[in-house]
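Quick entry, no commentary yet.
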Amino acid sequence: MSTSSAWVRTRSFVVPAAASLILFSTAAASAPDHDHRPVGLVAQREQDEPVRDEFFWLAEINKATTVINSEDGLLDPAMVPGIAAALQKVIDDGAAPGAERPSTVVAFEPLLIEAGSTDVTLLHAGRSSQDMHATYRAAILREKLLELAEQLNTTSRTLVELAAAHTATIVPNYTNGVAAQPNSYAHQLLGHAAGFDRDAQRLREAYARVDRSAMGTTVLNGTGWPLDRQRMADYLGFGALVDNAYDASQISSMEHPVEVGSIVTAVALHSGNFVEDVLTQYAQTRPWILLEEGEGNTFVSSAMPQKRNPGLLNDTRSDASQAVALAQGPVFQTHNITPGMPDPKEVDNNTEVVDAGIAALAGLDEVLKALVVNPERALEEINSDWTASQEIADILMRDHGLPFREGHHVASEIVTFARSKNIGPLEFPYVDAQRIYAEAVAGTDSPPELPLTEAEFRAALDPVAIVNNRTTSGGSQPAEVERMIGEARERLTAQDEWITQRREHVAAALAELDEDFAELRG
């Protein structure tokens, strides 16, 4: 695909120097490509690591129970090797291709009995399916949160680096669906990145609430057995305990999916907002932001040869909508039921919610990498209307002492006259600006003549100067944009480290459990 100096190919974040405008290829696929998604980070991890499903965590809970209770004198030492051997056989059998991997306590325990004897049921002293299921649901959900966090960070980093490539690109921004002011595309993109950063904050906070062990709380009020809850939590890699035994399986395990669903909703809404903003201007005959053609990004119409349909944008928007829809499920399932009911607790349903959020973010990452921006066309769009007119009012007040409403009235009258005569800001006659100013301030204490020279008047309507001359903290001026890019990168690095630390903590805990359990088997 050929590009011109007016087009910035953002997939590689470089600005090419070719001389001709972009030429659209008709070799694009003739139908939507719905298989454009990459394998992705999550899928790759699933290929590299053992499946930590309900069966896995039931096994880990039983391993930890065997180790702790044998050392605490709650199991007859003579029975411990046999119990450990039976448990290991169940684990080994479950690892075989196509093997049964039960997801409930009542289905797991018969396999233990078959592998050993009824003596293995001594493990169940002081336990219940309530606390065991609440524990594995939390363990699985916290892992899914880390997968979501990783994809969120990946997409956010793409967004920030895209901003770094567009610090000098000036585009129109909109409020109430109408062109409002010029802005640097970098500044606009960093605004979206700020929203995703808040999603990351919410995710970390939710993780801390999910990362609590319910083991040892039994059904709802604890047990008469002196179980070591803290050591159990440590072996399973949890950061804390659910303090109240009733809360453990009756309250918190119902609210976890709702809270995670709210985070997925926020992520999906942010993703959809970005896509819709691109699609709004994409419908123009001469957009300034497009998708790079081919590679599953666009497809041609079967009937209309001129069309290049933005399939990737449509698919990503649909993914975001699907995530929002699925994320409401836990809310409806938790509504109007008594505490502890199973309705919102289904692992597969709640995993699907998180996976939908991951899919929306992965799609957005592809969108960001496929965007092609035409800075010259964007600037032309700004100059075709009066999006820079507020600067006239600001200068009249800031530099020449006019009350804001008087300056605003002057600028508004200039825009009204210009639109009635179909005059753009670059062609507006200075003499008309002088006349309109004099009429607007007549009878006031303001200077009777326009206090701006023609050069100053023209400069006031320069969108590049407007963007670069902002002075507020968080504004669009280059120094502030560079600061925000740097700080965004630092936050993303810190988030990466947080994800790594959480995973390493769980992995280390499970490795220690494996070592201690292996000693029991001799």
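second:
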Amino acid sequence: MAALRRIARERGGWWHAYVCPAHGVELDHGDVLGGVFPEGGARCAYGCRVDDEAVRGAWLVLSHQAWARHLRVLAHRGERAEAVARLVEYAGLYEELATAQHGEAQGWMLRGRLFHQALTDAIWAVNIGHAVSTLAEHGTDDLDGVLPLLDALERAALDARNVLTGKGQLASNYTAWLNAAGVAAGRGAAAARGQEWDGGKEWLEGEHGLYAHLRVAVAQDGWEWEGSTYYHGFVLRAALLALRGTDPAAVPADVVGVLAGMTDVLATIATPGGILPALHDGPYLRAPLALEWLELVSLTQQLVPSPALEAVAGRARAELGDADDGLDRELGGWFTGPPLPERAAPGALTVFGAAGYGVLRVAGIHALLDFGPHGGSHGHRDKLSLYLYGDTTPWQPDPGQVPYAHAEFRDLYASTEAHPAFRVDGGEQAECTGTLLHSDDRSVTAEVTTAYEGVRAVRRIVAGDGFLVDLLTVTAGEDRRITAQLRPGTALDVQSQGTGPVRTTWYGDETLHGWHTHLAGVPVRPVSTPGPGPADDPQRVRTRVDFTAVTDRVTFASVYQAGSAGPAVTDVTLAEDGLTVRLADGSTTRFRSED
């Protein structure tokens, strides 16, 4: 017998509260379309059952959002009677809630009606509007009961946007989704009435519309201003959803350029196997995120085809398995015009000057150097972090972030200690911005001078002949306790030699070999300790390695080589005039520590 499906009648809360207080993992969602909170409490992967008001409110968010997506699926699949009945049911519920906005939202939130946040209302409204638009393509006689809901959603989006832009926050990611909600609800209502939509002047072209938002929210290098993979994709997805049925030729050329540039960003940071690094505060791994990436890739492929993003979609489908609802494959023809020409594949090095990332690809290693702005509320204290990936292996990833309601683990994953960065005297880096010193076709060098008072750090990464070189120099005016950190996302072996460099072996679908040495004039202690792995599961233990010296100047040098690359590295030595790498074929190469 099929499981009973019903729409919950209660307001949703804040989804970030759906987290185990003991273990920091997101709780199991259960049957989100059943409309009833799991009996006995929401399950944790470690055996906990959690049941309190905040968790129940968070589950309701997941349930209502799943229903909105499900209604889009029903509309696309032609299951009209069920879709219309549920939409009318939601219209009644939304009217019941019209007396007030959500009364339990946190003070910083722009409040919604069905959820704590107006942002969450807007995301829900986009799916509702598109479900109605799809239904209207095949008739409108039964859609009158949905019109009050669509009209109310458009008004709510406009009211919330006015509050936001009145505070000077046109660039906020809220604005992107409020505009998308206004478009979707307005288009859906017009379609249900059998009319042409006339809201473009307000929602797309207006002073606070989508185009104006994109022009101020996205930097020249293509990154959304927060410099976060998740929020970058979040804004791009809102924009593309808002442009349903639009001919790209009708969109202003500069806005098309912004959308193409944003797509290029994701294609550039993605590994060949489809990993999207969770830079600056994104969730690390969760099924709803995989669904979002699938939807986004489907939309971008219609506008700007990219083989790299096809790999992202393939990885997301594999992560989802049976949970893939197939909606991304039902979005064909979203844009009425032809796609833009396929963009050129990136070269060995790409530098994003505004966001402050260098992406270097060499012989099976995908490396990212982070030196840019802190990122506002979505930044981490991680300047000069070096992230290392194989095609499908996160050897040393940005660890991501847990659901925000878990304050302790959220602080941990925002900390310097959690990242492959550097620390001084065991303290946290200040929220700061680094500077690009130099880049060419095979190397990038950046510095930071305000992470710690009186301390300058310079990190240079270079593509060698089949290997990656990493040179980190930290200088202080007096002796300080200076630490360079390895933060694996996979199993790691560490071997300290009697003489010569420390050796590391990183495991996964692919293997990575590391050689680590230093120049300090004093001993450097390589200390390995157990620590939490990436943020999707803080209880999963990974071996962390700290290289520490008490000195006023130290250079930490590492050489990395993928197991599939060759000829093999045989020796690594560091002297005042630079780093020398020897290979099995007898060749040697020397690298400077700074430009």
